[in-house]
Amino acid sequence: MIIYNKTWLANLRIIHKAEQAHHEGLISQVELTHITESHPVGFYLPSVFVRGGLFILTVIVAILSCGLLSLLILDAHIIDGFGWSLFLGIGCYVALEVMVKDKKYFHSGVDEALLYMAGALISGSMISVIDNLHAYAYHSGYIFCSLLIFLFCIFLTLRFADVITTIAAFASFFAILFFSWSNLGSIGEATLPFITMAAAGVLYWLSAKAQLRSDYANYHTCLDVVQILGLITLYVAGNYYVVQKVGNALHNFSYEQNTTVPFGFIFWIWTIAVPFVYIGFGIRKKNVILLRTGLLLIAAAVFTFRNYYHLLPIETMLTLAGVLVTGLAYWIHQYLKVPKHGFTQESLNKTDLMEHIKVESLIVAGTFSETPGAPADPAFKFGGGSAGGGGSSSSF
Amino acid sequence: MNFKTFENLREQGLIDDESWNRIEHRHQNPLISIHWELRTLFYLGVTLLTTGLGILVYKNIDTIGHQFILLFIAAVSAGSFTYCFKHKKPFATTRVQSPSTLFDYVLLLGTISLLTFVGYLQFHYNVFGNNYGLATFIPMLGLFYLAYIFDHLGILGMAIVNLALWMGVSVTPKQLLSAGTFNSGATIYTYLSLGILLISGSILSNKFNFKRHFAFSYLHYGVNVAFISLLAGYFYYYSYLGISLLWMLGISVLATYIYIDAYRQKSFYLILLVVLYSYIAVGSLIVRFFIGLGGELGAIMLLLITLIVSAILIINFLIKINRQLKAS
Q1: Do A269 and A304 contact (CB within 8 A), yes or no?
Q2: Which of A206, A252, B19, B227 sits a CA distance of 20 to 30 A from B144?
Q3: Under DSSP, is residue A44 helix (H, G, I), strand (E, B) or coil?
Q4: B176-181: long-range contacts (C-beta < 8 A, 24 or more apart)?
Q5: What is the pTM assigned to this prediction?
Q6: Domain definitions of chain B by residue range
Q7: CB within 8 Å of chain A, chain B residues 14-33
Q8: What is the pLDDT of residues A193-248, one digit of tens each?
């Protein structure tokens, strides 16, 4: 099913693992060279910046080509229909298949650009077909549309093992669930959070299980993504704010209305406790995905709480939170001076580090750039940069 | 870590006994690095704390409380710098590894609270008077000094941003894109001189082997600012063909120089910047040429074809360069 050469993919995985082991000081340079030489990989693998450049340029070429073709047949009046974007999408897809097979591209920027163009054009034509049917009863149009896009994205994911198509497939799956479940009337609406949680939990569990099987190894990254999204969805489905707002939307209340959620305390417990449960499991099972998702969701829990209860003015909150977070980081730093319980604060991948330091310096310069100095206008406010950076995930 | 992979490699005789023992040991005692999680926490904590304190002082400016807060900020800053000077490694002209993650962020905390403090002094007591140039110049000098003696790339970035502020412009990508201040000749010349200044900074760092690893930061800001200001200059003088072509000449000179330099340093990032900015420049020349031909449909199609072909040529060029640099 997958379009890329499977032997090369397997060899690439082995080389990556060997490189990692080398960075961690487990195997020597000579061994790494031997392993690399005995596991040939024929893909064209550009460096990350070249990959970005190729992506941008390919998108430009694809868009301009579509424009040119549309201009050529402007007089024939077939651009207006869904068929034209379907045609262009299929064109992109064919180009993608040919390029990957011919030029041995593997996630090189070119293939990704064509893949997303094809995906967007073909999905767009599906949406416009179904939109023309005017099937509004029981959301049948939405359900059918989501189903088509879901199947299409699953196909693309299986064929190209791409992360973005995985995300699209995941989103369309929950769109199907949402639209069909809310058809069930008041029972459906009341149980919607729970069925979403159940589905997300099952998806997380399945993808975590699937990752252990070697025959799915080509989709390792995609399964990572499903796990992360599954955990986030599992949390969000029970988040008080989300439950309240989705409830408002389903009952046709206005968005701002502060309706009370039945059994609200369950959702409050969920909102606050789940991030810590994730982190706890992450530490116990030494699972990086659980750990990082949990850390990220703590921010979500704080924002949710803050949205309903203003215990302290914002600046006091910020200062206290700053002291707390810095203190926590300091404690971890001191606690893990020597690696304990299988955790270390040292970076195991030294080459990776070099790249990150530069990124980090740019983030720091970007967020703390507004130094006080010239109060040009009376409304001048000084302060150490803006809080907008947040940057919770930017270093990962 | 996948143990099975290494078992297979061992069977193929690609891993010797000594390494195998290490791998087995690691497999039985897995080690997880939370290096970046910890750094993120520190970054978040410092951001929250300094932002909170900054707003606190500002909001309480007319009460007695603000002097206490100010004292607190001064204490944080002084405490941080005491820690840093005590734990700092001796100065060297080459790269000095930071003693620890904690050190990096204590330094950052001290620097930002110092800036807040200085800003407050200017705001309330007008220390620098109405000499606003001085009010940005002094913090800038301070930042450069701190960046060099503590070897901190993040503070160097802040210093560069402040250099731009002192010259009256801004260089963070967000502001560059959103400000849209490229509509006056003076701004464009300021940006251009800033860009050239920063690029010279990187050349000098390399030449005198003085904190050579700082060269990238200078070059990153310098190249972006220089290219953007040259392009802006081209469009600013668009109606004067001769002058606008001079700006294009500037772009080609800069592109050639950076390209040669990047090729020697094997920096894919710089090559990418050169290629993309050059494509924009060439593209705008092509568009100008075809618009000169008149707005016929045929001309537009020819224009599209030319743009497509040139983009494909650049793609092939990038692919080739990548192969060459990887092979060498």
Answers
A1: no
A2: B227
A3: strand
A4: B176/B224, B176/B225, B176/B228
A5: 0.82
A6: 1-31, 34-168, 171-328
A7: 14-16, 19, 22-23, 26, 29-33
A8: 889 999 999 999 999 999 888 888 889 889 999 999 999 999 998 888 888 888 88
Cβ atoms < 10 Å from Cβ of A111: 25
Q: Do A342 and B9 make contact, defined as CB atoms within 8 angstroms? A: no
The percent of residues in chain B predicted with pLDDT above 70, rounded, is 92
Please report the ipTM that was assigned to this predicted complex: 0.81
Beta strand spans in chain A (E): 343-344
Is A29 in CB contact (< 8 Å) with chain B? no
| Confidence label for A355 from pLDDT (cuts 50, 70 and 90) | low
Q: pLDDT tens-digit profile of B238-276? A: 888 888 889 999 999 999 999 998 888 888 888 889 999
Task: Give which of A368, A377, A386 to mutate to test B binding, by max B Cβ within 10 Å.
Answer: A368
pLDDT at A382 exceeding the cut of 60: no
* Distance to chain B for A385, nearest Cα, Å: 6
Is B172's CB within 8 Å of A365's CB? yes
Place of tokens 């449909």: B297
Alpha carbon distance A326, B76 (integer Å): 13
- H runs (alpha helix) in chain B: 3-11, 17-28, 35-59, 65-87, 101-125, 132-150, 153-167, 173-179, 185-207, 215-236, 241-265, 268-292, 297-327
What residue segments make up the domains of chain A, in order of their start? Answer: 135-238, 239-309
Vertex A161: Cα angle to B316 and B7 (nearest 5)? 105
Q: Do B272 and A49 touch (CB under 8 A)?
A: yes
Residue B114 Cα, gap to closest chain A Cα (Å): 9
Enumerate the residues of chain B whose CB falls inside 8 A of the CB of residue A326: 41-42, 45-46, 49, 105, 109
Q: Do the chains contact at B51 and A383, CB–CB below 8 Å?
A: yes
Give the containing element (helix H, strand E) for B32: strand B32-33
Per-residue pLDDT reduced to its tens digit, B174-229: 566 565 566 677 788 888 888 999 999 998 888 888 888 888 889 888 999 899 88
Q: Which residues contact B306 (CB under 8 A, 6 or more apart)?
A: B286, B290
- pLDDT of B77 over the 80 cut: yes
Reported confidence tier of residue A371, pLDDT bands at 50, 70, 90:
very low
Residues 138-197 of B with CB under 8 A from A: 139, 143, 153-158, 160-162, 165, 170, 172-175
With CB atoms and an 8 Å threshold, state whether A315 touches B162. Answer: no
Number of CB atoms found within 10 A of residue B228's CB: 20
